[in-house]
Amino acid sequence: MDLVDSVCPEIQAWTNQVGAHAALADPRKQDNAALLLASVAHTISARSQRFYVGVGGHAIVSTEDRSVLASHSWKAWSITETYERLTLRFWPDSTLTVITVVWALLTATALTQSLE
Hints:
The chain has helices at about 1-5, 10-20, 35-40, 80-90, 100-115; strands spanning about 45, 50-55, 55-60, 70-75, 75-80. By secondary structure, it is an alpha+beta fold. The strands form 2 sheets. It has a 3-stranded antiparallel sheet. A two-stranded antiparallel ribbon has the order 3-4.
């Protein structure tokens, strides 16, 4: 866990709730309805030539008075920036391509799981 926190701490919460398992499949007492939704309905967005996960948030709203019953948002993190940091450390001769971005996300998730 220390290695993941030192190399890419911003993905730890996302990986625990989405990458390792969807929180919806194995909810904890502290997980609210919005987090459970976010664990299976997350988006990948692009901005400034980077791919990001965790942009935006989720809210459960009452149909009666439109009050927010539960909300959750991830800390946004860049898949491509994380890959570049990991590449410098583990694969210094690698180049960034669309395939390697997807591979990086899977690798980051597997790395986190193996350290738990």
